[in-house]
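Figure-free illustration: sequence to structure, shown twice.
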Amino acid sequence: MLRPASALAILAAFLLVACGSSGGGPAGSDGNVASSSSSSNGRGDSASTKEGCPAAVASTLSEVAQRIYRQAAAGRGVTEAVARVTRSSALAAAISGGDAGAARTALDGLLAKQIARIDIVKAGRVFASAGTGPAIAPVRGAVPGTDASFVLSVQADDSYMNVTRQVTGAEILLLSGPASGSPGSRRLAGTIPGPPPARIPASGTLEYKKKKYETFSLAGSVFPSGGLRIVLMVPAGAIRCPGAGTNVHIETLGHVGELIYQEEAGSPYVKATLRHIEADTGFQRAVATRDLAATRAAIVGFFAAHIHVVRVRVYVSEPSGAQRFFYDLGGPYVLAPVHGTLRSAGKVVGHFSFAIQDDAGYMKLAHRFTGAEVVMRTGAKQVQGTLQPRPASIPDRGTVSYNGRDYQAYSFTGEAFPSGPLRISLLVGESARPAGEG
């Protein structure tokens, strides 16, 4: 699911979705779940009462959770994984030859950090398998040229739960059984410890361990087979509905878009990457000695490592204390710069800025998770967008008419690399793109 080095790998620790103001400032600072007091159906219907708002927020966040699941079940990553399996001549030869060991070796090579689990089934039994741990959203198919089939998953349970929790602010429970649920459903996994509540409504309010939640359930499947109930438990104390007049659907999705941006700028993953770069002795020496070739080699090493860095800009410290530009390597359009300091022999020898995400990667994430069209601008220039050309004018909030269709807008300001405002707008139309479209 969604792995350009990888956009999802970066989603290591989302903050709670913020609720509240209709202003364009950063969301998430107060740890609240995105909400407002309008409808959750994306068509602008009014849900102006505070009683209706929590359900509207939970329903909208469930759309995000479903989109994440659908990416695991039918997204581009699934297509690529299936293609690798069905095109593997080594796997087909091992199956035809009855060599389970060779089949396992072939499968290990096919995982490519993308397939979480895979079973090869022959004559009704598992012939070979690779990957461990519980997984969801299994996909099935035939292995060409053999009498075997496969079932694979690109999404581990904990990965799905963590990403969904980080994006929505909800606690997540994975239960056996359909979304309608029933007493006695078995807990498969969850972001909160302990047994699940005895009865969880398909949607509605729930009190659990002396806390109140607004719940919403989705249906799925577990690997290799079986029903799955995905339960979102949105903390009721984190939902605030400030009054009538704002569309809860676009407000909630817009805050999700803000949090995706904030994740790129200041998550624990980003902070760990900052510490890693600051502590790299080769990078320190290269900048301290003004060695351009060694500086470039160190940055290339960051790109090649298992951390995700897309651009690094370096400044060296002059005796006066001023900073002088020294080197810059990476993609042309990246966002959310993070700044660090380089020390050698106890002295500051330079500073640097880096980014873990490019504009295109953010756009794809925000579009896939929210279903909104995304437009990114620096000044009057569009740097990325799912609408080409962009609408002539996009407000902070309000209606935008484009190509005969009306959209609700949610705009906020991020930062381009290496500096300067980056205006990001999410536009939600009357009927969003299907959740599984990659």
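We now fold a second protein in the same way, so the two outputs can be compared directly.
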Amino acid sequence: MLSALKLVQQIETGALTPRAVVELCAAAIARREAEIGAFVALDIEAARARADACAMLPLRGLPVGVKDMFDTADFPTEYGSSIYAGHRPKADAAMVALVRRAGGVLIGKTVTTEFDSLEPGRTRNPYNLAHPPGGSSSGSAAAVAAGMVPIALGSQTGGSVIRPAAYCGVAAFKPSFRLLPTVGMKCFSWSLDTVGLFAATVADIAFAAAAISGRDLRIGSTESAAPRIALVRTQSWPDASADMQSAVERAAQVAEAAGAKVTEIDLPPMLEAAAKAHGTIQDHEAYRALADEIDRHRDRLGPILRAQLEHAATITPAAYDEARRLARQARRTFVDLMEDTDVILTPSAPGAAPHGLGSTGKPTFNRLWTLLGAPCVNVPGLFDSAGLPLGVQVVGRFARDRLALEAAAFLHHVLAIS
């Protein structure tokens, strides 16, 4: 994988030019794209032409992959659907514009599942091509894992950033709700859709988030202070594989040995119940966000998405309103829960990427944290007995994104040296 921070440091010292970094990405794409299928559109020549002109901006001309849910003025934007084949937006999504302002160079559009749903795309897991990369930000996670780009944009409505990062063994950051703009991103659920980022390490992801957002999120490569960590298993703990359970417990043990204060807490019943409200809110809104596609192109929707939307049509406004009330109560409860801890440690996914390409995996360990709007970081570096990546998830307090990144960086570091 390509470390964004190391590449920037080499550009700043003159050891590399931004165009030379594009060539590193182009070589990796030439080697692996045919078998992985991370991209739906590429323009390496344009990246070559633009890179050096961005050398003095924060991202230093680094190539960036952009999930094909974000509108781009100079690339097709198809949202993973044949309905939008060849679609050319007139303007960039806000996030794409921010990436360009920061000196990132778009090298291509990455594969998304159909409209951010559970309908699998064509991307394969770089660690083992017989396994999926997760979804819906399939191509972004795979492109970073295969060294094709140092930074990629994704989005999460349920678990679409954290889970594919875990499956592909990369770092990922789903910030607090609305910290990054979704304007110009195809909507699936306006109450839940959140922009996310992928990179090789937690320090890389913090650097990218800081450069793009203009916020004080960069943590560099210095060691972070030992955080207060609460190990949370949730009622879904039995759904985690034995390897995943062991990975989370090992992460807690290693962190404690390195000086972190680790406690174990149970979620209040209110929060456990709130996880179920996520699906009601998401699907009710998706049925409305995709109203035109349903009404005019129903036969061109994939079977998984079509079935999901048919069920969504049965969700009443009263049920939706009740789910929203429960979500608001849960957010207040979450604030109280986090008073005596910095972050929560929990699985990023039920296990490693499953065998076969017919599924994007389950958002079992993601939906609640997305509903709460909390910052989440996938910490890579662990593996199951078959050698597939496992990710552990660090969940922070709402709007305390830097603290979550620092805790995740601490954990990433101690796991790497243990």
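Summary for the second example: The radius of gyration is 20 Å.
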